[in-house]
């Protein structure tokens, strides 16, 4: 995110006017709502975003220092901060995670002599990046598994062909923001190294995995040879990403960053917003994860009490502060009811779009951040009851 608020990206498919109108209504309802589970920064106005940055920036960096030029100054400070948090020798700032991961895996391919990257069928590069690994970077991907979970050690160990790198997305978003156990993750990374492969973490949302694993970021990142992290997905920055790993890898990655067009003249607003996220949001993520579990349990209880024939919260106990909800209704019906709830009651329970998964079956994503901490379990159940009532209203169809 963001592409369109709550909308998933489907390459080559244009939104119809109805879908665009619905997306605009969803966004407007969310902005006007008195109660929501999350208020991601990208929904704010430019004035609001700049005002918040102006408020927090003096405590983050000496604003009398010269602005960055081609990665100097504040960008270097951010890189050092990230490397320290992840326990790596060095880090490089990138404008996008797509670029950062292509560069990382291209560099590893040169070192291993094998351009094949083993990953999950639902991994972000496979689903959302227009085949960029192959088209742009000359990498070849193989899918270790398509099951809605991370690859296992046995699957990695028994895969039928060699690969130079194993890429693990933590958490795996399209499977429901799921994570393996700590023991499973260690075993999987060890299995890759038994095959002389390096391990790269797609850690766009790695920041919030500490609760599930019961380990600090540095210990989690230590299982990988390189790690990518995002500054906007969980930390609410303006954008940007970082690649962390051995200094020799990062030095080469910076050369490729230049070749890929990522050597941007000045990036201090984005770097400042990233530092703000590390200062303001990173310490709160465990609190968000804990409350997401309260919200998930209340959703299950609310749908059962409302008489919905079947409802699934996945994972049953969320691994992060984001998770999925599955309901046995048409996606358009669910989307309309969700928007109407915001418009008519000032409460938005389901802020994201609903994706059809079959006849009368759809899924959406839930995220719990600071705004969601104000919701009690009873608040969630009451909102579920209101939502189900709108589902039964013919106007929602």
UniProtKB/TrEMBL annotation:
Q: What segments bear the compositional bias annotation Basic residues?
A: 1-11, 22-31
Which residue ranges are recorded for the region named Disordered? Answer: 1-31
Signal peptide as annotated in the record: none
Q: Does the keyword Amino-acid biosynthesis apply?
A: no
- Which Pfam family is one of those matched by this entry? Beta_elim_lyase
Q: Outline the extent of the Aromatic amino acid beta-eliminating lyase/threonine aldolase domain.
A: 75-300
| A cellular component annotation (GO) from this entry | cytosol
List, in alphabetical order, the Gene Ontology terms for molecular function in this entry.
Answer: L-allo-threonine aldolase activity
Enumerate the Gene Ontology biological process terms.
Answer: glycine biosynthetic process; L-threonine catabolic process
Gene3D superfamilies to which the protein is assigned, alphabetical: Aspartate Aminotransferase, domain 1, Type I PLP-dependent aspartate aminotransferase-like (Major domain)
Q: Which domain of life is it from?
A: Bacteria
Give the record's keywords alphabetically.
Answer: Pyridoxal phosphate
Q: Which cofactor does it need?
A: pyridoxal 5'-phosphate
Keyword check for Lyase: no
What InterPro entries has UniProt attached to this entry?
ArAA_b-elim_lyase/Thr_aldolase, PyrdxlP-dep_Trfase, PyrdxlP-dep_Trfase_major, PyrdxlP-dep_Trfase_small
Q: Which family does it belong to?
A: Belongs to the threonine aldolase family.
Query: What is the name of this protein?
Result: Threonine aldolase
Organism, as annotated: Streptomyces poonensis
């Amino acid at each position: 995110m963001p592409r369109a608020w709550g909308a998933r990206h489907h390459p080559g498919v244009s939104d119809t006017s109805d879908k665009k109108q619905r997306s605009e209504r969803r966004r407007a309802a969310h902005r006007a709502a008195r109660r929501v589970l999350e208020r991601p920064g990208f929904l704010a106005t430019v004035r609001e975003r700049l005002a918040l940055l102006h408020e927090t920036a003096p405590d983050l960096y000496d604003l009398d220092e010269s602005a960055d030029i081609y990665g100097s100054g504040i960008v270097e400070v951010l890189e050092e901060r990230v490397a320290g948090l992840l326990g790596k020798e060095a880090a490089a700032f990138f404008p996008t995670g797509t670029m950062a991961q292509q560069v990382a895996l291209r560099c590893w391919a040169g070192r291993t002599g094998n351009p094949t990257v083993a990953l999950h069928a639902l991994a972000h590069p496979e689903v959302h990046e227009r085949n960029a690994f192959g088209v742009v970077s000359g990498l070849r991907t193989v899918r270790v598994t398509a099951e809605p979970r991370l690859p296992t050690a046995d699957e990695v160990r028994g895969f039928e062909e060699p690969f130079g790198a194993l890429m693990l997305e933590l958490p795996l978003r399209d499977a429901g923001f799921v994570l393996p156990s700590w023991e499973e993750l260690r075993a999987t990374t060890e299995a890759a190294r038994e095959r002389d492969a390096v391990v790269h973490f797609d850690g766009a949302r790695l920041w919030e995995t500490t609760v599930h694993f019961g380990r600090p970021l540095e210990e989690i990142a230590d299982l990988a040879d390189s790690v990518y992290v995002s500054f906007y997905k969980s930390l609410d920055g303006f954008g940007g990403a970082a690649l962390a790993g051995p200094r020799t890898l990062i030095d080469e990655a910076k050369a490729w960053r230049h070749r890929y067009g990522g050597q941007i003249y000045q990036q201090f607003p984005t770097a400042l917003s990233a530092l703000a996220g590390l200062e303001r949001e990173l310490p709160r993520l465990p609190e968000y994860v804990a409350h997401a579990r309260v919200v998930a349990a209340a959703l299950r209880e609310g749908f059962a009490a409302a008489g919905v024939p079947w409802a699934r919260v996945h994972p049953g106990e969320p691994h992060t502060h984001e998770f999925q909800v599955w309901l046995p209704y048409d996606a358009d019906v669910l989307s309309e009811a969700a928007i109407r709830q915001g418009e008519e009651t000032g409460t938005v329970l389901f802020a994201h779009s609903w994706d059809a998964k079959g006849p009368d079956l759809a899924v959406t994503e839930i995220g719990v951040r600071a705004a969601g901490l104000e919701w009690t379990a009873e608040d969630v159940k009451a909102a579920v009851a209101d939502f189900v009532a709108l589902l039964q209203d013919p106007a929602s169809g």
